């Protein structure tokens, strides 16, 4: 991580060079170039950007964060039977991407931990049962699974992890 020091994660703003961001996933590039600003304006999602302190223009990575609910039937039976019979509140990391030039330096992990910390702080004020992620490919699935995420039932790409898993781990607080 010596190449990228003093990293800051901040909300996406007009100073960030969105057009200059490129990762290995075209849909993520397209999203940050064309759609992210509209999603923020419409309160569909919030975007957070990894940048080097003193260089807020270059985006080293980003993630989107929003809310959703999941049907009880999507959860494993051992969890579902302990919960009320209505949709369960969750936080969605819809996209998490790292710039081609910044991959391999732990920035993805840092972005994930930041998303978890933000969600945990909000969960003290509003009920959120789990973090949900959409794994775009097998590599992304492996990334999330190493942190304990598991597949939702009948979902090829959607993974989840109950927030109580994070609350037990002091690294996330």
Report what the structure shows:
The protein has 173 residues and is of the alpha+beta class. The protein has one domain: Gcn5-related N-acetyltransferase (GNAT) (Aminopeptidase). 29% of the residues lie in helices and 26% in strands. It has helices spanning 26-41, 77-80, 107-123, 138-145, 163-167; strands spanning 7-11, 46-52, 61-70, 88-98, 130-134, 150-151, 158-162. A seven-stranded mixed sheet has the order 1-2-3-4-5-7-6, sandwiched between helices. Helix 3 links the parallel strand 4 and strand 5. The longest helix has 17 residues, at 107-123. The protein is globular. The two termini are 22 Å apart. This is Putative acetyltransferase, GNAT-family protein. GO terms for molecular function: acyltransferase activity, transferring groups other than amino-acyl groups. InterPro entries: Acyl_CoA_acyltransferase (IPR016181), GNAT_dom (IPR000182).
Order of helices and strands: EHEEHEHEHEEH
How much helicity do the residues have?
25-40%
The level-1 CATH class: Alpha Beta
Remind me, CATH topology?
Aminopeptidase
Radius of gyration: 16 Å
User: What shape does the CA trace take?
Assistant: globular
Structural class: alpha+beta
- The CATH architecture is 3-Layer(aba) Sandwich
How many separate structural domains? Answer: 1
Q: Tell me the strand percentage band.
A: 25-35%
User: What's the mean pLDDT score?
Assistant: 87
Q: Low-confidence runs (pLDDT<50, min 5 residues)?
A: none
Q: Biggest sheet, open or closed, and with what strands and sense?
A: 7 strands, mixed
In CATH, what is the homologous superfamily? Gcn5-related N-acetyltransferase (GNAT)
- Number of separate strands: 7
Arrangement of strands in the largest sheet: 1-2-3-4-5-7-6
Instruction: Report the total helices.
Output: 5
Q: What is the rounded distance between the termini?
A: 22 Å
Domain N-acetyltransferase: 7-167
GO molecular function, one term: acyltransferase activity, transferring groups other than amino-acyl groups
Keywords: Acyltransferase, Repressor, Toxin-antitoxin system, Transferase
Protein name: Putative acetyltransferase, GNAT-family protein
